[in-house]
Design goal:
By secondary structure, this protein is of the alpha/beta class. It has 15 helices and 15 strands. The structure holds pyridoxal-5'-phosphate (PLP). The site of pyridoxal-5'-phosphate has 14 residues, from α4.
């Protein structure tokens, strides 16, 4: 039997991806091999446990696959340990919190309304329901994090876990100072590098590995792998929270984290996705990947400059990474209106709160733009200038349907030069 209904819809989605300009900062296009692994027979296999220590028979081949994935990601980041089973970034963070803190403990994260992530203590998320969150944010004047304020908040709140990392912050992170603060208050330091992971792997941004106890990331953003997550230990394997085994020995940090993934928060691992992760990590170990990440950053610089020259305001004035947050308040257009106008012209981006936003999360005053996906399509600096021209046209007349339609035709024609999955 052939399910025409669903496969027709998948074809429509492929068509949408081919024809449009993808500026959602958290999206990317995986290689064809990564997708092939995800659609493989490995989806049929139960493999609860870890390579060599499974609760099911017949795991000899998935054991090898998972071991290769672990070895490759350790090499890529210089980590001493990794667990590649988390189904997503949110699952990776859930496992870390289950491992490190108890319900009712205090956590300190980056404010969601300033660009943080739901899993860093938001009231609607498990992290804000089970734990007691406090937040640091960016300064109104600079759009940047002030480390003295982070320290003040940490000293006042005495959190057990401090999280650095964000979903919409265009500046680099001072992991070293975060660690000094964590040590001062006796907190575990988690870096969630879900967004900039690819740029960090290519050594274009500060390295969290020497400074953070634990590092989590998604695998599908700048890292350009399948949808998923993972957990790493940077340097010290020593368990900072003193959990003991039944025999009274101190458990290693890796054992506590492994246990928090399975059986703590997940059942069987997705071995087809782990195979795809292994392929993506192999790709990330190549020289091509470093050139790709350099182009991602160069394109972000170029897009930011082209938008600024057209009167757009970027939070913090620019970007160090692959993304930027545009403050639309001087344009008298909401994030929602801007997103709608762009999407109608096949330019996909998402509305986003800006720091100190007076509009709701459903309306917002900003949009977030990122270059990982368009860079995978093969776009360069001059293409970013063309994108800025389209964005400027659309945001200056977000209700002009004739204009939107003519931009859409231009976009669809332009993208024919950047083939996808031919
Ligand atoms: C995207 C993201 C996540 C969550 O990833 P999912 O795979 O969507 O669960 C977690 N943390 C940060 C900082 C992110 O940007």
């Amino acid at each position: 039997m052939h399910d025409k209904q669903i496969f027709d819809l998948i074809d429509q989605e492929l068509h949408r991806q081919r024809e449009g300009v993808e500026l959602i900062a958290s999206e990317n296009f995986t290689s064809a091999e990564v997708m092939r692994a995800m659609g493989s027979c490995l989806t049929n296999k139960y493999a609860e446990g870890l390579p060599g220590k499974r609760y099911y028979g017949g795991c000899q081949w998935v054991d090898e696959v998972e071991t290769i994935a672990i070895e490759r990601i350790k090499k890529l980041f210089g980590a001493v340990w990794a667990n590649v089973q988390p189904h997503s970034g949110a699952q990776a963070n859930a496992a870390v919190m289950l491992a490190c803190i108890k319900p009712g403990d205090k956590i300190l994260g980056f404010d969601l309304s300033h660009g943080g992530h739901l899993t860093h203590g938001s009231a609607v998320n498990f992290s804000g329901k089970l734990y007691v969150p406090s937040f640091y944010g960016v300064e109104k004047e600079t759009g940047r994090i002030d480390m003295n304020k982070v320290r003040e908040t940490a000293l006042r709140e005495k959190p057990k876990l401090i999280i650095c990392g964000a979903s919409a912050y265009s500046r680099d992170w001072d992991y070293k100072t975060f660690r000094a603060i964590a040590d001062e208050v006796g907190a575990v330091l988690l870096a969630d590098i879900s967004h900039p992971a690819g740029l960090i792997a290519a050594k274009l941004l500060n390295d969290p590995m020497p400074h953070c106890h634990i590092i989590t990331t998604t695998t599908h953003k700048t890292l350009r792998g399948p949808r998923g997550g993972l957990i790493m230990i940077g340097q010290d394997m020593e368990n900072p929270f003193g959990e003991k085994t039944l025999k009274g020995e101190l458990k290693s940090l890796s054992a506590v984290l492994d246990g928090a993934v399975f059986p703590g928060t997940q059942g069987g691992p997705l071995e087809h996705v782990i195979a795809a992760k292994a392929i993506a990590f192999g790709e990330a170990l190549s020289d091509n990947f470093v050139s790709y990440q350099k182009q991602v950053a160069a394109n972000a610089q170029s897009l930011a400059a082209a938008l600024v020259s057209r009167g757009f305001q970027i939070i913090s004035g620019g970007t160090d990474n692959h993304l930027m947050l545009i403050d639309l308040r001087n344009k008298n257009v909401s994030g929602k209106q801007a997103e709608n106008a762009l999407v109608k012209a096949d330019i996909t981006a998402n509305k986003n709160m800006v720091p100190y936003d007076d509009k709701s999360p459903f309306v917002t005053s900003g949009i977030r733009l990122g270059t990982p996906a368009v860079t995978t399509r093969g776009m360069k600096e001059k293409d970013m200038e063309q994108i800025a021209v389209w964005i400027d046209t659309l945001i200056n007349s977000p209700e002009n349907e004739t204009l939107i339609n003519s931009v859409k035709n231009e976009v669809n024609e332009y993208m024919k030069a950047f083939p996808l999955y031919e």
